[in-house]
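pasting for the record
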Amino acid sequence: MTKRGFTLSLDEYMTRTEMKRYRFKRRKLVTGKGVFPTTGFTLVEVVITLTITGFICLIIFGAFRLGLSAWERGESVRDEYQEARIVSQLITQQIKSTVPFKIKPQQAEGDYLAFEGDARSLKFVSSLSMRGKQPEGLVYAKYEFKEEGSEGGRLILYEEKALNKDFFAEEPNEERAVSLLEGVSSVRFEYFREEDLLNNQQEEWVEEWKAKDEKRLPKAFKMTIIRKNQKGKEEPPITILASVPAFRFEEVRPMPGRRVPRISTTRY
C-alpha cells in the first residue's frame, strides 16, 4: 500500500490503523463524549450521599421514637386516670353507705356516733365493704394518707368487721391495709357542716369532724387528691364529692333487736 510516496506493507498498515482506533477510543473514555460513557461517582460524591442518607435515617428514627414515647406516655396517663376513676367511685359508694352506728363504750362517758375525721384521715362504719365480694354486714373503715418520701405517699384503706365493742377506739390491723392510690402528693378530707341557727353555726366545709362532739353526721364529704406524674410534677387535683344520706337517719345501736334506720321527720 502506497501513501504519499511511501510504500507500506499490509502488516504495517494494519498496525497503524489499530493504533489510531485505540487512541480514538481512549480519547472518548477520558473526555466522556463517547457513545457509551463509563464515568462513575467520585469519593467525595459517595461521602456526601452517605452523609445525607444517614441524616434522613436519623430523622426517621427520631420521629418514630418520639411517637412511640408519646404513645407509651398516653397509655400510662390513661391507666392512672382509669385507676383514679375506679377508686373514686368505690370511695363514693362506701361513703354514701355510711351507717349512723352508735357506740356504747365500756366507760361511763355516754354513747356517741362512730364517725371521726380530720384533714388526713377518716374512720366510720359502713354497710358496704370494698374488699368483700359478698355482703358482710357492717364494716369499720378507715382512710389514711401516709407520706413516703420524695416519690409521694399512699392513700390506704383499713377494713374490719364492726364486731368488737371498742373497735372504734383501737388502731386497725396493719396487715389488713390496702393501698388504693400510690404516688400521691397530698390528700385533704373535708366535711360539710349544715347551717344550725340554734347553735349559731353557718354552713361551711371544715377539716375536722367528731360526731362525738357534733352529735350528728356531716351532710357531705369531700376528698381532694393531688398526684405526681412520672417526672415528679404535680397533676391537676382529683376531687371526690359524696353526700352522706345517713345524716337524716336515726342511729343504729350495737345490741340485739336493734332498730332498722328510718328517716327522721325533720326537714332539711
